[in-house]
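Q: For a teaching session next week I want to show students how multiple molecules come together into a single three-dimensional assembly. I've collected the sequence lines for a complex. Could you give me the predicted structure tokens for the whole thing so I can convert them for display?
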Amino acid sequence: MSNKNEVANKDTSLQATQSERFLASVQQQFAAEAGAPVAFTDYEKTLAQHLFLKVDNVLKDLETKRSNDKQSSYTWNNVNMRKLALDAVHRVKLGLDALIPNHIHPVPYFNKREGKYDLDLRVGYVGEAYYRAQVAVDPPIDIVYELVYSNDHFKPIKKSFSNEVESYEFDVKNPFDRGEIIGGFGYLAFEDPKKNKLVIVTEDDFQKSRSAAQSKTFWDGHPAEMRYKTLVHRVTEHLEVDPKKVNAASYAYVEGQEKDSAVMREINENANQEIIDAEYEEVDELPFDKDQDPIEAPTSESDDQEISFDKTGTDEPTW
Amino acid sequence: MIEIKALASGSAGNCYHITDGETSLLLEAGIRYKDIQKALDFKTSDIAACLISHEHKDHSKAIKEVTAAGIDCYMSAGTAEAIGHDHHRIHRVSTQERIKIGTWDIIPFDVQHDVSEPYGFLLLNKSGAKVLFATDTYYIRYRFTGLTHIMVEANYSMDILNENIVSGRVHRAMKRRLMQSHFSLENVKEFLKANDLSKVEQIWLLHLSDTNSDEELFKREIQGLTGKMVIVP
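A: Of course. Below is the structure for the complete assembly, covering every listed component.
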């Protein structure tokens, strides 16, 4: 008869096997998709295993919470491995570690076309700051991020003829009553201090990010955290990417894909939903607004007006 | 009997003429008015109205001349504001608000493009024709019943676009702009699959990209999927 320790050991060894299979599957899928095999270092293999553990936990968690029987179960069999393999390779190549908080958030959404769950491996703000620093032309030696409250003292010291190093003054005057958040700043420090850069983010900038967010739940529930994340994004955007770096291709893939995936998700969730079921109506009856008269088209006779050739409309890029 | 004539289709200009034999309409006015006149053998006096989907010049270039010719133009308030041509022939309409123009009932509906307030149009005719016109949209929120004619944008194929990015012909930044403004062949297919096509007589594929499309491929794929007559003007 097995005791608890033996059961735990079996679980661990089973998970280890699954993890190895995941790694093999990722390498195999990537080779098929990208047309070239991928070789992981031992460290990258560890990162891939961490990613497996994270995804496995997320799937199990979602499966426990799944209430709709008609919905596909959250199991590995129902995951689009083709997409996951490509995404996983690029995230591993960037050195992202799924077991570090805010490096990678696996978010599944059902892809009707594939009939499986696409797992978006969204890169968290900590992960983004990490890999951007890795692939930068000039990697920073330190990055400071601070939210500024109304009772704090903050003064930017910009670069000028009399000041070679961009800098700032920042002082929390009353740590127990800092007031409202009024903005934030980031400070990128380099070996050559003349390159140091101060990035200021205003409350208006935060509000723009809030408006762009698909869901306002996080912004309303965690206003300071969401501002901090936005600040990190805005500051690390200033790091120029070196295309010659070995993982720059993965950087480009991940950066592009984060945004492409958001569009694909939007289409997947919103396209071809509501039905417009309308027929020609003989009488002037308004199905949508009964209180308003229908617009009658006037007869098309010439108005005899002077034709002007002023510019109208706006130009669209040629595709 | 519905007759559709494409006067121009693509990023250089868009304009279509549609008639049910009784009432003629222009869909878009994105070319010079004299080219519209020429294409219609100068028979423009019977045009009852012009529907404008959005303010980009390849859809609205001739608006001043069209209104000056006494043709009523229908568009969203956002489009009218963006065009900025104040004229009594400009009519602002709301999404899903029915308009009656001669023998047509027209229902505008919101589409997805990176402009003020873009619309597609559902045209219902008293003899039972149901024409869908939707261009410059990266997806359509709605499904429709009993369509007889579908005029829909098929701007690019994702596969061709990706190949062009790899070869350096198209910059990667263009991809996102395209994905969030124009209909891909792949998404058009999903749209067609989601709709009842049993009464469809013709499918018009509009606004093909010069760089990221392949007319023959698009036609073959949509014909293969639907079994319907496909026209690429």
